[in-house]
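Fold this sequence, please.
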Amino acid sequence: MNTEAWTKLANAPAQLMCSERELAELLGWESPRCVRRAVQRGELPPPVSLGRRSVYVVSVVREFITNRAQVMARRVVNL
């Protein structure tokens, strides 16, 4: 994720709910397929079901990415 994308994600309202397409745009990715693949790889949290729709809550995505970065940083320190 580039700096501009992280800034957009950080500045988005915490309770904003996004579709796969909207999240891909927010992250600066090419397509919703990139989001699905990132979820499959464990790089993003799974979407939340809201009736027939699946949405991503910005605060959950931010927290997930932050926690994942902290875990990776600890692994580097422990090498």
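The chain is about 60% helix and 15% strand. The helical segments are 3-11, 20-27, 32-40, 58-77.
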